[in-house]
């Protein structure tokens, strides 16, 4: 069999919720602390090792490490780096997960330059200190960040209105490009994973007059940030296919929606006939950019987690059988996270969080892990990491061969 090594050491990835936004004018949130990932980082990475997962999305909280303009304290990363080395887990460093330093205006002229200085400093601190090649997400979910901070007013900068969303999106893209260039001044071989939701929007059944708006959001707004990063739009910002690099698509059931003129759209039900197969949507991304793709986040909720993974795997393998360069699938998050609005646990992780006094115990959700094991075996993937997970990277030809053998067909069943 032809050997086509993937970029990552394992086909399955994971990650930890790391938002550090200012939330609804109530103050700074730190989801790493709220999930106690900072307290249990060694145990969290050891859990991934037992699952045969050697890659994790991990955050560097810009507003918490920048002590003043141009002054940084990255020492909080030392136990994280130590835990990664101990368990042989490769990070994808997330440099801006909705949070930025106090007093900084993301629409200002100096935002991109300040972000680039931070990215350079972060790369200087972490590059070469963890397993695997250096990998970064400069700004997470630019499109969604622009909605929740620029149109809905949920997070800082608490703007509202469509034009503010467009302005924030453009500014974030400009900063992400500057950040990518700054990182590569430190490590020219560093890879970027630019993450955004993959969505599909349809008009309400009784409002066919909104078909154009729904189509624009699906095929223009969804891709606007990636287009700028790729240099297809605003080439003066310095974007290019190499800056876009690896396209990280986030895939959740609520990503297929019915258009609403005001506020967030309404998620389609799992049997809605208007749902479009994930394999088809991945095909749109591949045809547009011809860049490697990962599913950068995906998960079901509660007891729907195993069925959701089954659906995503079937659709992903159907896409690979069509020739799409899919490099991996990230089960996100590894440990549970709270609903931003209510604080209730979402039960979307591989491990639930069970309060015991002041501790959040990690409780494996067995059916979800069983489904992961089933697919690892079907694809001939490791189920527990060996001493050197990086000695034998994923042979994507083996995964494609499994996809051809299984002959999975795309469908609209998004359970």
Automatic annotation (TrEMBL):
SUPFAM superfamilies xref list: (Trans)glycosidases (SSF51445)
Protein name: Family 1 glycosylhydrolase
């Amino acid at each position: 069999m032809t050997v086509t090594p993937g970029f990552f050491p394992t086909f399955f990835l994971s990650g930890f919720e790391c938002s550090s936004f200012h939330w609804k004018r109530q103050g700074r949130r730190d989801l790493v602390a709220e999930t106690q990932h900072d307290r249990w980082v060694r145990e969290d990475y050891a859990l991934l090792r037992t699952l045969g997962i050697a890659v994790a999305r991990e955050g560097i909280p810009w507003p918490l490490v920048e002590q003043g303009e141009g002054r940084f304290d990255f020492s909080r990363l030392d136990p994280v780096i130590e835990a990664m080395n101990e368990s042989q887990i490769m990070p994808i460093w997330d440099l801006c997960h909705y949070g930025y330093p106090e007093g900084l205006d993301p629409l200002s002229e100096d935002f991109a330059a300040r972000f680039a200085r931070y990215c350079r400093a972060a790369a200087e601190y972490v590059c070469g200190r963890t397993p695997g090649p250096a990998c970064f997400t400069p700004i997470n979910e630019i499109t969604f960040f622009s909605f929740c901070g620029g149109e809905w007013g949920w997070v800082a900068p608490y703007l509202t209105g469509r034009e503010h969303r467009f302005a924030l999106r453009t500014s974030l893209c400009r900063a992400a490009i500057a950040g990518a260039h700054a990182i590569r001044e430190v490590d020219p071989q560093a890879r970027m994973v630019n993450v955004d939701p993959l969505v599909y929007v349809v008009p309400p059944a009784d409002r066919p007059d909104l078909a154009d708006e729904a189509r624009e959001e699906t095929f223009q707004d969804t891709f606007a940030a990636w287009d700028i990063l790729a240099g297809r739009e605003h080439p003066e910002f310095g974007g290019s296919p190499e800056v876009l690099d690896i396209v990280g698509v986030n895939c959740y059931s609520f990503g297929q929606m019915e258009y609403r003129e005001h506020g967030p759209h309404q998620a389609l039900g799992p049997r809605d006939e208007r749902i479009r197969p994930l394999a088809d949507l991945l095909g749109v991304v591949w045809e547009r950019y011809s860049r490697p793709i990962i599913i950068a986040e995906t998960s079901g909720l509660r007891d729907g987690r195993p069925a959701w993974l089954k659906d995503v795997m079937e659709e992903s393998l159907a896409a690979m059988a069509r020739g799409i360069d899919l490099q991996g699938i990230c089960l996100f998050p590894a440990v549970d996270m709270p609903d931003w609005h209510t604080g209730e646990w979402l039960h979307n992780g591989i491990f639930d969080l069970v309060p015991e006094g002041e501790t959040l115990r990690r409780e494996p959700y067995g059916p979800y892990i069983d489904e992961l094991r089933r697919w690892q075996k079907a694809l001939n993937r490791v189920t527990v990491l060996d001493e050197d997970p990086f000695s034998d990277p994923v042979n994507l030809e083996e995964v494609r061969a499994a996809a051809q053998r299984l002959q999975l067909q795309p469908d609209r069943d998004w359970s």
